[in-house]
Amino acid sequence: MVTSDARVGRLITLPSRSPAWLGPDVADAPKANGPHEAPHTLQVLLVEDDPGDAGIVSFALRAERSPTFKIVHRMTLGDAIEALGSDTVFDVVLLDLSLPDSFGLETVTRVLEAAPRLPIVIMTGNDDPQFAAKALESGAQDYLVKTDDPSGTVSRAIRYAITRKTAELERQDMAERIAAHQRILMQEVAAARGMQFDLLPRAERLTEALMRLDLEIEAYFEPSSGIGGDLWGCMVSGENRFCCYAFDFSGHGIGAALNVFRLHALIAEHWSPNLDPANLLEVLGRSLNGLLRRGQFATMFFGIIDFAANELTWSAAGAPPPVMVSQGKASFLDSRGVPLGLLANPKYVNHKIAFKSGDSLVLYSDAITDAEVEGQSFGQDRFARLVDDQLLQHGELRVDGILDAFHALSPPPNDDDLTAVRFSRLAR
C-alpha cells in the first residue's frame, strides 16, 4: 500500500471520459416576407428585357378575372433587385434568365439572395427538360417556355409556384421552430447539468477533514444524457466520523434528475449525527414513497466510517454490492434491501465491519455491471474478476484503474449514468 508520507488526504475528481454530449448551437435562420395565401389580387414582379415578351405576358395576366394581377415590370436584374427592396410586397417573380446584366441560373440565385422567401417562375426560350430540372433545383418553383401560349398557362404557373413555395416555407419554418426548441431545451439541460454537478462534494470544503483523518476520496461521475439519476456524497459527522453515500434512481434524463434533487434535499433535511444508516434509509424511504410516481425508486448505500473505532457501519437499499479492500484482498459487502420509495414503511438493517488504516471502500453504479459486452451483461462475476486483476497488477484498487479496464471492454459513451467513488484510509 502507498503510505501517507507520499499521499495526503484529499478529494480526487476524475474528468469525464464521455464525448461531448451537447451538440452545436442551432442558429435561428433569418426570416423575410414570403408568399401570402392566394389573395384576390396578386402582385407580380415581371423581369423581362424584351418588350414584346413582356407585353404578351402582361396581356395574358390582365385577361384573368380570378385572381387579378398587378404587374411591376423591370428590364434588368439590378432594377428588379431594387424593386424587391422597396415597400412593395410581391407575391411572385416572373423571371427571364437572359437579362442585360445577368444570364442563366445565376439570375435565380441572385433573386433568391434578395428575396429568399419569394416564389420564382422562370421564363426562357430553352425548351430543354434537363435545363428545366436544373432551374427547379436552383430554387425556382416552376418553368415556362416562351414559345408556349401564355393564356392561362402563366396564371396557373403563378398559383402553383405560390402554393409550392408556401408549403416549402411552412416546412422550413417548422424545422426552424423545432431547432429553436431543441436549442432552448439543450440550454436548460446544460443549466440543470451544472446544478446537478454542484450537488457533488467540493474538494475545498473537505480538505481540512480529509487531511486530519488521513482519508482520500477518488470519484468519477458522468450522467449518460447530460443529466441523470445518480449521485454520491459525503459529510463530516463529528471529530472522528465520516458519512458517505451513493444512490441511483430508476430511469434516465430529466425525470431521474428531478428525483435526484428531491432525494438530495431529503438527505439534507433529515440527516443528523444521531441517525444510524438504517434509520436514515427508513426515513428517506417513507418520504419518497409519498413523492414518487408508480414504478420510480432509488437504490442507495449509506455508510458511516468511525475512525476511532476503526469500523464501517452501513445499510443499503438494493445498491450494487460495494467493494471492501483490506490487506490487498477484496470482498463485497451486503447491500440487500428494498429500494427507496417502493414501500410506505420500509425496514433496513445495519451492518458493521472493520475499516482500518490502509483499507478502502469502493461504491459504484450498476452502469458497470449492467453494461452489455459482446452481447452479454458485464455482470457481477466479471466485475469481481476485474477488481482482483487490478489488485494483482497494482497492489491497490483505484477508480481510474477500474474505469480504464471497464472502458477497454465497454467503450464510452455509457448507456447509463456512471458513478464510481473510492474512500481510502491512508496507511500511516
Q: Provide the CATH topology of the largest domain.
A: Phosphatase 2c, domain 1
Q: Please trace the helix and strand order, writing H or E for each element.
A: EEHEHEEEHEHEHHEEEHHEEEEEEEEHHE
Termini separation comes to: 10 Å
Total strands: 20
Give the total of domains: 2
Structural class: alpha/beta
Number of helices: 10
Order of strands across the main sheet: 1-9-20-17-14-15
Radius of gyration: 35 Å
What's the main sheet like?
Answer: 6 strands, mixed
Query: Which CATH-level-2 architecture of the largest domain?
Result: 4-Layer Sandwich
Q: What top-tier CATH class of the largest domain fits best?
A: Alpha Beta
Gross morphology is elongated
Considering the chains and any ligands shown, give keywords for the structure.
alpha/beta; Rossmann fold; 6-stranded mixed β-sheet; disordered N terminus; 5-stranded parallel β-sheet; Phosphatase 2c, domain 1; single chain; 428 residues
